């Protein structure tokens, strides 16, 4: 059950909010938990029991970590908790990848392959596991206390707005809101507006460009040319930008309607001057999680420069692997890590002497090349695609008819992405904030956009969010 599906929009959401706002204050969390469990069970009925048992184990080990005065016992409990969560993630997400590569090696050695049944990847498993690990580690570090009620922890894990694709929230960041929160008409109006604009980004821009991206990336090498390859990857850069921006808006909006204030997870990353800035703007919660629970434990920047560079590169190699069990994702992570290290070494110093627009353009070009690695299904596909991008001798391949709809929303997407680089954008924003009736205007505009989005959904094919694969 996904945010842009008719089932969610027309049945689940109205029923959920009706029940949530009808019940008394003491019953809001149990109601929200039941609805969140139903939300997850609808898509993953086979795995919800496993996640619940894992949550109970977290609660037991978290309590052991907190009450134990023996540092060794604390470490043992933490290790068991982290390994149980990582073990589940490795099994569901990486077992197929590992066994298929082992079989490939066995085949090269003329040995019999290992017979195995393909394992289905549960929705949102990466986001769930990272949130659960942060709960245990923060208790061990003394940053937070264990959940006072099991229902509070279950609500944290299964909170449906952030369940499937983040943001990755730490328990201590939301514990107070789970325990007590208020929900005003202002919260509801802000949440509905945010959700509406996110839905519009998804169905009008991301979903319109998606079919062309799919078509071009599936072209055989002999039909892929210079123009098609660049058009395809630019379409994908806009698609994934608005797809993830849309989910972030919708998650924050849904949570705000119920009184939760979730941190921003996306902040105009394509206007970044370098990769360092980019990763402070794109999937902010993932970047902060990697920093707090991987980069710093590895030594962070409190070590020699060569070790610091290695730590940074390892973090982004694993960041790539987090996105999926595929060599391309690992290569994409390594690609980002190389530029992040190079920026620390010398690129940032060079960039200080260059105009911002030059740095933004160069960074966007490098991001776009990286997205070819990210989107390609295999090393072979990636090689063919990159060859076509940098081979202007082959200008024309397979003719692809691009609809006026796609042309318009591609142009609109690029305009919305880079318009914030202009002074006009911020002047217009300032004028908007000065209008006394801006909230009423915003609500009216959001209502119109919501109606148009719903109509668009009813007349088009369903497209899941890209980040649900991860």
How would you summarize the topology of this molecule?
Layout: H1 6-22, H2 28-43, H3 48-67, H4 71-108, H5 125-141, H6 150-158, H7 160-163, H8 171-179, H9 185-217, H10 226-257, H11 275-278, H12 284-295, H13 305-323, H14 327-351, H15 356-375, H16 379-389, H17 404-418, H18 423-434, H19 438-458
Helix pairs in contact: 1-2, 2-6, 3-4, 3-5, 3-6, 4-5, 6-8, 9-10, 9-17, 9-19, 10-15, 10-16, 12-13, 13-14, 14-15, 15-16
Polypeptide structure, described:
The chain has 470 residues and is mostly helical. The chain folds into two domains: 6-180, no CATH class; 187-469, no CATH class. It contains 19 helices and no strands.
The termini sit apart by 16 Å
User: What's the assembly state of these chains?
Assistant: single chain
The average pLDDT score comes to 89
Order of helices and strands: HHHHHHHHHHHHHHHHHHH
Give me the number of helical elements: 19
Radius of gyration: 23 Å
| Helical residues, percent | over 70%
Tell me the β content: under 5%
Name its key features.
470 residues; mainly alpha; 2 domains; 71% helix; globular
Sum this structure up briefly.
The chain is an all-alpha fold.
